[in-house]
Amino acid sequence: MTDRAKLGWPGQISAEIITLAFLTTIQNPSLNFASAGDLCTPISNSSLFYCSQLEADIKTCQQEHGKSIVLSIGGATYSEGGFSNASIATSAANNIWSIFGPIVPGRNVFRPFGSSVIDGFDFDFESNVQNMIPFANQLRSLMDADMVSTGKQWLLTAAPQCPYPDAADGPMLAGKVHFDAIWVQFYNNYCGVQSFIPGASTQNNFNFDTWNTWAKNVSLNPNVKVFLGIPGASGAGSGYTSGSKLASAISYCKGFPSFGGVMIWDMSQVWANSGFLDSVTEDLGGYTPSPSTTSFTSPATLTTKTTPPTITTSPPSTTSSPGLLGQWAQCGGQGYSGPIVCHPPYKCVALSVWWSQCE
């Protein structure tokens, strides 16, 4: 599998929700799963590919291990900008549903995961998008109708940056779309978990309280869960936190009724960081969400986010010349006041309003 993993409740020792990333275009659907797509076969007359290994893995994760598999739409390379009108957005949602949703006998459609059916969709947009609300609401409508007829639990999620309101997902999050959970990226931003002040009841930059207020007062779903998104290793641009400080931050977040667990970017990072996943699981121990505020039919979990195809999992380069920034270092973004020149051959690339890095 390729993306994020989520942890939430006591007794879990591994990710429970796995997000595959990314569906990089929507109107003419295409996928990029980085190295996980190496064994896939191109589908004729389509920009998609068929992945027999992922087809088998999805079933194994779901049926043998009780995991939920969610497909993430967007990513840093998504450039369609959404849809020109609501009608096109609704039609696109119907098409994506036919490709990844329940199998309809007699329907001739390309299916990258074959007979496997995922458990939901995640939105990870890094720039402004148009008419995404009707797209999201049509997916929600299709999922709800299927749940009524089959009993299958579907998830609709989003991964906003921690600055509030999120520049890309803000319109959808403004009480317009019924999300089950959001994986807030508390990294690569000034409000990341690295800004948490242990022992302080009032936080200056770390703003989980702001997202809890959103969950209570703005979200269309009053039972939505907010996950603490963190890096699984130092390969992220900034925000990697571990040890007692991370434990303290998790403990602080547990005090909010919307808290759903921890999201970790990304699976490859956390698996290579020996002991980190176990420590986060231990930090989450003893937390039991209130049944009246839980929107999942089964416990939500620790989640990890797959590496975007254009970003490697290598740690930041340490070979830059004095005064020049190494690979993956931050070089720009709203509120950033540090150096902006990258060591050749790297260039400063904007990944969001809040973050640019040397690539």
What is the fourth-level CATH superfamily of the largest domain? Glycosidases
- CATH class of the largest domain, named Alpha Beta
Quick one: overall form?
A: globular
Number of domains: 2
Please outline the major beta sheet: 10 strands, mixed
Q: Name the helix and strand elements from N-terminus to C-terminus, one letter apiece.
A: EEEEEHEHEHEHEHEHEHHEEEE
Distance between the termini: 25 Å
Query: Which CATH architecture of the largest domain would you pick?
Result: Alpha-Beta Barrel
Q: What fraction, in percent, of the residue positions are helical?
A: 10-25%
Strand proportion: 15-25%
The number of helical segments is 8
Average pLDDT, rounded to a whole number, is: 85
CATH third-level topology of the largest domain: TIM Barrel
Unreliable runs: 8-13, 286-322
Radius of gyration: 20 Å
Total beta strand runs: 15
- Which structural category do the helix and sheet elements fall into? alpha/beta
